[in-house]
């Protein structure tokens, strides 16, 4: 448990050009708010506020940062900037968009597009009994288009889990929360340990961070698919490395889903990074190749249009 | 840019270390400098220090984030560093200007450019071979070129330390420039002082750097070897090694990726300054925060205005 909890900014608070509506989520590193801009468009604002380093008490606006924590607070801010830089460069329909970045109240804020819908986590919790395999393949294949874009920019997400995959009202997935996508934090600053979610994080995130790569995100994708079927995450990978209590999906869900899908999940969840799919593309290919009898819609897989758009936007 | 880099400087068996080395990189450009202050002259370490400091500072001023004209930049910094040493000697009423060798290498847009004066060397190792190396500005090298002596003779020649070009001193330096050289993934650039290449020799040096281990391991090993062979009077020995990687290569441990660096930020490693630089170097200043924010917003605007 963190020793302290930060107070969120109150509803109605005018933050720069935005009016805070309510708090959406609270993490160890930041608070996310729903807010409205001057035109009344809803946005999600992420406030950099690491629990362990800065404290905002009841009714206060500016967080208190002790002198000894100041360097670490500033260092963490660097990481927050890196997340911003990374996201600013990514323009993809399956990756959350950054709209603005500003400084206020002694800290910094990242404004993102607000998407209506709910997280895959919420969706699955409600509909697990009627979850269709086709739905799962569709969501993950399209979400992986976004992840491919992330990897193409030489970044890793490192915190993929059902609650970071957002389903818009039209069912298209968006990859959220790149808080962990900071490559440079790997070099080990003791004050700010890299964050991950047990159960979804790959074994190399716990130990041996030099082996991190696309296959680490792929482990988390496999764990997320597993969680969609099982209702809970697979056993923590760090515990699996000492004593593996993981029941292969091919065994646990035999007969309830196609063998091929279950095999894909087990393939992603190999403890040995080399035994997993080595690229998102390889995984996508497997996800759409169910069998010769059922063809998946080609639109899931192709994102030529968006790539072209990114390309044009760049020139 | 993606690369791994390692530098180390050792005193050998001398009373003081007159070698100075530094590397420095922005998001899109990288500079490495090795200077060997000349013993036998006064204040060799001062000359080396001035040269390295001057050249890295010039780089930080001009690489925003690229240097305009790399060859012109190298030419300017070498000449200006020479004059900075002369100015120092003048200010301090030194009877003669201190001297130093310099080899400096600039990398940007995937091309390497280097310049040198004296007998500190740069090696470019590619596919297991020495693809290129600088030619020492030494008498021995001249004699070697003219066929008066062979490599074996050069290695033991009594005048092998005499060089005819350096920064500082009474004569203008003769600086030699490389052609723009494209780098390929797996290329190793090694800059070193004669304290390293002298005792070890080119072939073993190559073999050691290409032994497949990371530079963080192979360079210390190489320096051990040089120090051992240097014997009771081992010279100061210094080396910077860089392994160039493809931009899309997966990040290995210790790999530097400048991808998410702010445009105007620099990372500098200068051994001799470590004590003075202090740990506060990690801090973000208010200016840097403003800079980062405006930069992110520029990137956002660039991608949304389509």
From TrEMBL, chain A:
Q: State the taxonomy lineage.
A: Bacteria, Pseudomonadati, Pseudomonadota, Betaproteobacteria, Rhodocyclales
Highest taxon of source: Bacteria
Q: Which residues form the Protein kinase domain?
A: 18-288
Identify the Pfam families for this entry: Pkinase (PF00069)
- Species annotation: Denitromonas halophila
* Keywords for this protein: ATP-binding, Kinase, Nucleotide-binding, Serine/threonine-protein kinase, Transferase
Q: What is this protein called?
A: Serine/threonine protein kinase
Q: InterPro entries annotated for this entry?
A: Kinase-like_dom_sf (IPR011009), Prot_kinase_dom (IPR000719), Ser/Thr_kinase_AS (IPR008271)
What terms describe the molecular function in GO for this protein? ATP binding; protein serine/threonine kinase activity
UniProtKB/TrEMBL annotation, chain B:
- According to the entry, every stretch annotated as the PPM-type phosphatase domain falls at 4-244
Q: Which domain of life is it from?
A: Bacteria
Provide the species name: Denitromonas halophila
Q: Which PROSITE patterns match?
A: PPM_2
**Pfam families annotated for this entry?**
PP2C_2
Q: What is the name listed in the Swiss-Prot or TrEMBL entry for this protein?
A: Serine/threonine-protein phosphatase
Lineage per the UniProt record: Bacteria, Pseudomonadati, Pseudomonadota, Betaproteobacteria, Rhodocyclales
Which residues are the signal sequence here?
none
